[in-house]
């Protein structure tokens, strides 16, 4: 099933991508972030990726938080947990000039690459490539599917 434009406005969607160097990253939309076509075309694929990265993948490194959040913030806990698994995390930017873009909020000491993932996850991510280097770019722009 496809994410509709209404779904994107009502849900805070966590989605995953691969940068041009094969590093895995995560974005959280906050109901207002740009969401690429490769995410919108299949809720099931996105949910499978979320389940794998959130519930199945083991922690393998330490994480660094790049911004200040309240310690009770669930987003912060999720991002630190994902970065401890090797994933670079972004959240929707609150800067009006960067509307729809994402800002980096946590990084792993050692990132994981698509090559280290099981084949079934690699296959789901093969069209989730974004032309960005997440290790150097603090701001992420993706074209919105709608």
Descriptive tags:
globular, single chain, 146 residues, alpha+beta
Nutshell version of this structure?
This protein has helices at residues 5-10, 37-40, 43-56, 74-83, 119-125; strands at 14-18, 24-28, 63-65, 88-92, 102-108, 139-140.
Structural class assignment: alpha+beta
Q: What share of residues is helical?
A: 25-40%
Percent of residues in β-strands:
15-25%
| N-to-C SSE string, H for helix and E for strand | HEEHHEHEEHE
- What overall geometry do the principal axes of the alpha carbons give? globular
Q: Supply Rg.
A: 14 Å
Unreliably modeled segments:
none
The number of helices is 5
Please provide the count of β strands.
6
**Overall mean pLDDT:** 93
* Separation, N- and C-terminal Cα atoms: 16 Å
Largest sheet: 6 strands, mixed
Structure write-up:
- With 146 residues, this protein is α+β, with helices and mostly antiparallel strands.
- Helix content is 28%, strand content 18%.
- Strands 1, 2, 3, 4, 5 and 6 form a six-stranded mixed β-sheet that branches.
């Amino acid at each position: 099933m496809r994410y509709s434009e209404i779904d994107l406005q009502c849900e805070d969607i966590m989605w995953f991508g691969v940068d041009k160097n094969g590093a895995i990253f995560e974005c959280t939309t906050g109901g207002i972030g740009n969401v690429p076509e490769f995410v919108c075309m299949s809720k099931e694929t996105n949910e499978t990726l979320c389940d794998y990265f959130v519930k199945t993948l083991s922690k393998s490194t330490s994480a660094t938080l790049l911004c200040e959040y309240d310690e009770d913030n669930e987003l912060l806990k999720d991002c630190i947990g994902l970065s401890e698994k090797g994933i670079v995390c972004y959240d929707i930017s609150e800067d009006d000039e960067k509307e729809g873009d994402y800002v980096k909020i946590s990084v792993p000491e050692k990132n994981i690459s698509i090559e280290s993932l099981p084949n079934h996850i690699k296959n789901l991510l093969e069209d989730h490539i974004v032309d960005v280097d997440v290790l150097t770019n603090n701001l992420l722009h993706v074209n919105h599917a709608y």
